[in-house]
Amino acid sequence: MSGVLRHRLVWPVLALVLLLLLNQGFRSDFLVVRLQDGHLYGSLIDILRNGAPTLLIALGMTLVIASRGIDLSVGAVAAIAGAVSCTYIYNSDNPGSFSTAASAVALAVAAGLVLGAWNGLLVSVIGIQPIIATLVLMTAGRGLAQLVTDGQIISVSNEPFHAIGSGFFLTLPISILIAAGAFAGAALLTRRTALGTLIESVGINPVASRLSGLSARRILWIVYIFSGFCAAAAGLMISSNVTAADANNAGLFIEMDAILAVVIGGTSLAGGRYSLVGTLVGALIIQTLTTTVYTLGIPPEVTLVFKALVVILVCLLQSPKARTLLRQRRRRVPVLPETKAAV
Amino acid sequence: MSVLTSPSAPATRQRISRLQGKARYAPTAATIVLFFAMFAAGSVIYPGFFSGQVFLNLLIDNTFLIVLAVGMTFVILTGGIDLSVGSVVALSMMIAAALLQEGWNPLAVIAVVLLTGAVFGLLMGLVIQVFEIQPFIVTLAGLFLARGLCYVISLDAITVTDPFFTSMAQARIRLPGHMFVSPGVIIALLFVAAAFFVLHQTRFGRTVYAIGGGEASAKLMGLAVPRTKVLVYTVSGFCSATAGILFSFYSLSGYSLAAQGMELDAIAAVVVGGTLLTGGYGYVVGSLAGVLVLGIVQTFISYQGTLSSWWTRIVIGALLLLFILLQKVFSRKTRIT
Q: Chain B within 8 Å of A314 (Cβ-Cβ)?
C-alpha cells in the first residue's frame, strides 16, 4: 500500500479524481457519456477534446523540459500554424476541397518544423539559454503570424479542415484521436528506444553526455523540432475548431498551461527526468480545473487565479527544500498521516 | 548558465569568461551608438524627425517601460528573471482605478498601489529564496495571479476621472527651445538615477553584482545573499507598481488586458541595453538606452506610415536576437553541448 502511495503519479491522479467528483457533486449528469447519432457526447469527452491542444503542446514541452530547456514560443508557433493554413485555404482557387485542406495542413506542419529547428539552432549550435532563445520567437512570432494574415482574422469554410478540430471518427472527436496518436508516438519513440534515456542524460549533464560520445546537439535539435511540430498541430486544431485564424489570440497563454501540465505531472523543471503519463494527467487536470470553474459558476476569468495557486502549490510540493521541512516536521510530530503522504 | 539551471549546478557559471577591463562597457556602448545611429538615420530619411521634441517624446511615451526596465535590470543582474511585471502593471492600474472610483484620496491610492507591488515582489522573492524554486516558474505563477486578480477587481475598463491623475496626465514641464516633458519623465529619470546610485555606491548594489558573478562565491564572501535576492524581487515589484501608476497617468484608465506582453519589452530593453542574462554584468543606463532603442523602432514605423504595427514586434524580436548573439561574442562562451 505504501508503495502505491509513494508513486509519483498518485497525487496528480488523486487531484484529478477529486476534481471530477467535485463536478459530479454539482452536476449529477457530469460523468455520463452518451452515444448520439454515432458520436460520443458528455462532459468527459468535452474535457478530452478541449484539452487536446494543451496536451499536444505539453507533450513537446515535456521532452524539451527533460533536456533542461524550455520552449516559450509554442503559443506563437500555434498562431503561425493557424495563420499559414487559413491564409492558404483562403487564397486557394478551390477553398472547399480536401486537397486544399491537406496542403494547408502540410504547410502548417512544415512551418512548425522550421520554427522548431530555428529554436533548436539557437539552443544547440549557438548555445543561447533556452528561455531566452525561445523568447525571441515568442516576441516576434505573433508579429509574423499577423504578417501572414495581414492583421485580419481569416475565416475559412472547408469541411475537411473543420473536421480536424470538431469532426468525429469512430464515435470519437478527431482532435482526441490526434492527441492520443501523438501521445502514443512520443511514448513509443522515447520509451521503446534509447531516445528517452538520451534526452534525460542531456538534461542531467550535457557536457558529460557529449564526453561519453552522445551527440547532445542532435538530441536538442530533435526535442525542439518535436515541440514545434506539436505546437503546429495544436495550432491547426485551435484554428480548425473556430474555422478562423486569429493571430493575436490563438494559443494565447497556452505555453503557461503546457508548462503547468508538465510540472503537475511530476517532470522536474531542472531536467533529466520526465513522465509522459504524468503530463497527460497534468493536462487533464488543467482542463478539468477550467471546466470546474464553469460548473461552479465562478467567472471564467478567475481561472487564472486558480491556476496560479495550483502552480505555486505544486512547485512547493516538488521543491526539495519544502520536502525537507515537511520531513523534519514529521520527525518531530510522528502521528500525521497527511504530511507523511505528502512526502 | 541559465535561469533554468538549478541552484545545485553552479559550476557551469564559471565557464563564462570574464569581461575584462574596458570590454565591460562594450555592449552598453554599442546600444548607445546604435540609438544615435538610428536617430541620425531617421533625421536623414524623414523630414521633421531631427528635433529635440522627437527625442523627448520617446521618453514621454515610454516612462513606464523605463521604470520597468530599471527593476528588471536588478533582477537580471542577479541572474534571475521576473515574468510578472506586465501583469503587476495591469494590477496596479486596476487597483488605482478602482480605489479612485470609490473616491479615495489620490495620494493614498498611490501609496496603497506601491505597497501592494512591493509586497507582491517580496512574496515572490521569499518563495524563490526559501523554497529554492526557479525564479522563472515563480514569477510565471505571479503573472497568472496578478492577471487573474485584475479580472477579480473588474472585467471592464474603469476610467480615471480624478483631478490629480488627469492633471498629471496633461501637465507639461516647459524646457528651453519650445520643448516639454511630462512629470512622468522626471519620475522615470529619477528612478534611473536612484538605481545607478544604489547599484554602484551601496553594499546592496555590489552584492547584486556579486550574486550574478557567482552566487556560491558571494555566499562564501559572507555577503547577505538571501536577503539581497529577496530584495531584488521586491525592487522589481515596486518598480512595476510605479510603472503602473505612470501608465495610469498616461492612459487614464484601468483595464485588465493592459500591458500584456510588457514583460517581454522590459526584458528585451534590458538585454538590448547590454546586461548579460547570466547576471553579473550590465548597467542601468544601458537599460535606459535599450528602452530608447525600442521606442525609436516604434517611431520609425509610425513615421514610415506604410508599415503595419506588427512590424514592431518582429523588429524587437530581431534586435533581441542580435544583441543576444553580440553577448555571446563578448562573453566568448562557445560550446555548451
A: no
- Give the whole-number percent of chain A exceeding pLDDT 70: 93
Please give the average per-residue pLDDT across A42-55, as a whole number: 88
Counted across chains A and B, CB pairs separated by less than 8 A come out at 160
Q: Which residue is it, cell 524550455?
A: A70
Interface check for B308 against chain A (CB to CB < 8 A): the answer is yes
Q: Which residues of B touch A217 (CB under 8 A)?
A: 337
Q: What is the 3-state secondary structure (H, E, C) of A274-305?
A: CCHHHHHHHHHHHHHHHHHHHHCCCCHHHHHH
**Helical (H) or strand (E) element with A77:** helix A74-91
**Segments in chain B forming alpha helices (H):** 26-45, 52-61, 63-77, 85-101, 106-131, 135-153, 163-170, 183-201, 203-213, 215-220, 225-251, 262-272, 284-304, 310-331
Nearest CA in chain B to A127: B336
What is the spatial distance between Cα B166 and Cα B318, in angstroms, rounded to a whole number? 37
Inter-CA distances, A148 with A82, A118, A248, B292, Å? 10, 18, 12, 28
C-alpha–C-alpha distance, residues B121 and B158, integer Å = 25
- Report which listed range, A33-37, A124-128, B255-259, is most confident: A124-128
Would you tell me which residues 128-187 of chain A have a C-beta closer than 8 angstroms to some C-beta of chain B?
Answer: 128-133, 135-144, 146-147, 150-151
Contact A12, A264 (CB under 8 A): yes
Residue A285 lies in a domain: no
Interface contact B193, partner A, CB < 8 A = no
Cβ contact, residue pair B131, A319, below 8 Å = yes
**Region B163-183 average pLDDT:** 86
- From the list A5, A1, A58, the residue with the least C-alpha distance to A274 is A58
Q: What is the mean pLDDT of chain B?
A: 85
Q: Which residue among B4, B141, B148 places its CB closest to the CB of A130?
A: B4
Q: In Å, what is the CA distance from A197 to each residue of A55, A203, A216, A272, B72?
A: 22, 10, 12, 9, 37
Residues of B in contact with A130 (CB under 8 A): 2, 4
pLDDT at A205 over 50: yes
Alpha carbon distances (Å) from A209 to A125, B217, B337: 16, 27, 8
pLDDT at residue B234 is higher than 50: yes
Domain carrying residue A194? 51-279
* pLDDT over threshold 50, residue A60: yes
Q: Vertex B46, ends B41 and B51: CA angle to 5°?
A: 80
Look at residue A338 in the predicted model and tell me its pLDDT.
Answer: 43
**Per-residue model confidence as pLDDT tens digits over A123-152:** 998 888 888 888 888 878 888 998 888 888
Number of domains in chain A: 1
Q: Which amino acid is at A161?
A: F
Percent of chain B with pLDDT over 90: 41
Q: What are phi and psi of B202, to 5 degrees?
A: -120, 160
Instruction: Given the cut 0.90, state whether the ipTM is greater than it.
Output: no
B81 touches chain A (CB under 8 A): yes
Q: What is the pLDDT of residue B337?
A: 37
**Residue B333 above 60 pLDDT?**
no
Extract the C-alpha cell encoding B90.
495591469
Of chain A residues 186-215, which have a CB less than 8 A from chain B?
A: 202, 206-207, 210
Question: What's the Cα-to-Cα distance from A93 to each of A88, A89, A90, A101, A150, rounded to whole Å?
Answer: 10, 8, 9, 12, 19
* Domain annotation covers residue A91: yes
All three cell numbers of B26, joined, read 562594450
